[in-house]
Specification:
With about 100 residues, this protein is α+β, with helices and mostly antiparallel strands. The protein is built from two helices and three strands, in the order H-E-E-E-H. The N and C termini lie far apart (about 55 Å).
């Protein structure tokens, strides 16, 4: 269920303050944050935010298409390393045996 439109999007205040200060000084620095729950605002476009994924900080360059999404969507917490090679070969041999080749 989404947030009420009356309240507006949620963004952690400490993050908003840092980005407003960077916009006033016309600086482009990487900002580290643990706030994966913050919604990306239009004022953040063009900045790089390092979002923590539980192990390390993933740099996220904010574009216009990201506005309205959460920071955590662009910093995956799980890394898919592929399926087991042994399991893939056994399924291929089982499929070939079933075909009668």
């Amino acid at each position: 269920m989404g947030r009420s439109t009356r309240k507006g999007p949620f963004s952690d205040q400490h993050l908003v303050v840092k980005l407003v200060a960077l916009n006033q000084r016309n600086e482009k620095k990487v900002i580290k944050t643990w706030s994966r729950r913050s919604t990306i605002l239009p004022e953040w476009v063009g900045h790089t935010i390092a979002v923590h994924n539980g192990k390390k900080f993933i740099p996220v360059f904010v574009t216009e298409n990201m506005v309205g999404h959460k920071l955590g969507e662009f910093s995956p917490t799980r890394i898919f390393k592929g399926h087991s090679a042994k399991a893939a070969t056994t399924t291929k041999t089982a499929a070939l045996a079933a075909c009668g080749d």
